[in-house]
Amino acid sequence: MAVAKEPKRQRGIARVARLLDAGASVFAEQGYKAATMTEIAARAGAPIGSLYQFFPNKDVLADALVARYAEHVEAALDRIKAQVVDLDGSQLADRLLDVLIAHAAERSLALSLLDARWEQPGVRPGVLRESLRRRIAEILRLWHGKLLEEEAQAMSVVLFQAMKSLVQLHEEKRYPGKAEAIAHWRGWVRRYLTEI
Amino acid sequence: MAVAKEPKRQRGIARVARLLDAGASVFAEQGYKAATMTEIAARAGAPIGSLYQFFPNKDVLADALVARYAEHVEAALDRIKAQVVDLDGSQLADRLLDVLIAHAAERSLALSLLDARWEQPGVRPGVLRESLRRRIAEILRLWHGKLLEEEAQAMSVVLFQAMKSLVQLHEEKRYPGKAEAIAHWRGWVRRYLTEI
Amino acid sequence: MAVAKEPKRQRGIARVARLLDAGASVFAEQGYKAATMTEIAARAGAPIGSLYQFFPNKDVLADALVARYAEHVEAALDRIKAQVVDLDGSQLADRLLDVLIAHAAERSLALSLLDARWEQPGVRPGVLRESLRRRIAEILRLWHGKLLEEEAQAMSVVLFQAMKSLVQLHEEKRYPGKAEAIAHWRGWVRRYLTEI
Amino acid sequence: MAVAKEPKRQRGIARVARLLDAGASVFAEQGYKAATMTEIAARAGAPIGSLYQFFPNKDVLADALVARYAEHVEAALDRIKAQVVDLDGSQLADRLLDVLIAHAAERSLALSLLDARWEQPGVRPGVLRESLRRRIAEILRLWHGKLLEEEAQAMSVVLFQAMKSLVQLHEEKRYPGKAEAIAHWRGWVRRYLTEI
DNA sequence: AATGAATGAGCATTCATTCAT
DNA sequence: TATGAATGAATGCTCATTCAT
Question: C1' nearest to CA of D5: which nucleotide?
């Protein structure tokens, strides 16, 4: 229903950016429910009324953050797509794996926001997931002309899951076997695209 | 600090079980923050005072639920451990993969509870993770006598991540390429343990 | 949806009475929208949480006040009904006119509460009005056996309107012609029931 | 204190008219307190700053609306006054009764605005009421030369109340006995002026 | 003069926890 | 020991009004 209001003047644009950043950090630290609008506004150095001027409620703010993440990842995938014909399997594997790693922090925030706000869990996250998988499938078919639609679909699911898993392996701080495990994982994904 | 009080009488044991079940369902539906102690008590058919008798605060209740999940999974891993010498690589892969799948619902609840309550996310989930990985590493060394401690560690990380990933692939309801993706994934894990 | 919770213990009964009185006075002074739950609780000497214990939201409190008024008026009409056979036209007129006058303050509060809370004004006030008119019609038919249902209905509308009007004439403080106007009005209603 | 600024140019006049209309509709739908200046401006298609240009605060806008109603009704009474010598009692009764009915919507708005904003209810409404009663008394004395000032005053009170009551009988939508009740009421007022 | 972003006190409501009964 | 009414700090959100652009 309600949507974020686009700032029109210079000052508003800067303020919205600060509000989004503040929202990202507070949500990341405390989670959706525990985060308070008051603290978000304070951290952005804005009065609470200004926060509500642009984001008429907490949900809208969370949605804006998720959208920002989605844009970033989609842009990164589009960049790969533009160069995919020049890549071999190992290179493509590495490029894909790096997409989510590059946006790891933003990603875990976006997922937690999506999860936190839906009683039927997974309904909304699914939309984002689908869209990213579809993009990966497109990249695969562009990369390997003979790939059937269905094959590309299944592979996109596997690859996307592998991408997410690698992020988890990366994010967790220091644990025994971390470096080797990451190497195993990357190796597996390279092989998955090489032995095709 | 505070811990759950052990019920002493027959009636107390039954009531604690109902309180835990009610807590599980409310937490699962609404998330940690949004769940209210009042509703949990009501759903268990118990007065709020009784809930606080056994679980002196909300965190203790959540911890008890996580502990219940941990016990179940550890028991399942112990059962594999007891039979591991008779299993080949494919069988071991399947047995491990099925452990988390069998407790998928309980698992997602436990993880969300752990995540929801810690500002530095992942600190507490890590404890659970470590304990399960360690168990997997033990299984691997028992299974394959020549495996070095470090190798077993790295492999346990990869395997545990693969187990979690398969749960995610399973849990997400109907999407294009689901069956094939799951088959790919299982195949990969079998090969991982076969080509050792 | 939500309704007032009935107090069960002695203390609760007293507290609810004080909350209702406080609500009545604050609503009467400031109007529904301008009245604050905080002030109502304070004036009743109760913490805000107690107010919400019994009246889960502002609307429910207002409804309870309207209901209290309705009960009082209905009881007064029922008392007339019980004695109606012994009354002549003038006496019945006076008795009816006095009902609303006796509850004038409560009445204007109830009406303002009903008016303030409904976008389509008059929808809910209508329910109260209907119920009171119906009671008046019953009284008329009991009083004058030969009255047809439809005649009684029309007369109840006229009488009820005349009752409300007299209240307004009364309530307005000092103005030229007040006493005479009231006398005219009473005279008219007496004649209305005498010349039947 | 503050008063509405008179628009000076063509554009201002049109804009003030649209603001007043918007104010009327929003006040009528939501009541004085619940109506927001922002919505009023929006409904008039004007920026909020423009609304405050002409009506420096919410009260001034409400006052302007009441004044607009008063002008309309006073003009209607003046028209009757100009023709009163040619009217018999029944005709005069009907002319008077029709004045308020013709402005019923505006009237209920004006009354709600007057009622809503004054803690001591009736203070301001009284001013309007007095002015209209005085006009009615003038009409009566012009109509019936021998009427004493005091008689005319009392009658103006009764008549004005009867006029308001008829509006209420009219405005309420469909109820049993409506048509007959209205006929009774009109009949009574005619007789009141005929039997003088 | 015209605009609309900025402001922040104030409001309704919630809920974990306590403690009198 | 068992119960559930009592408590009040904390939260999301509103809106009349101002004033920089």
Answer: E1
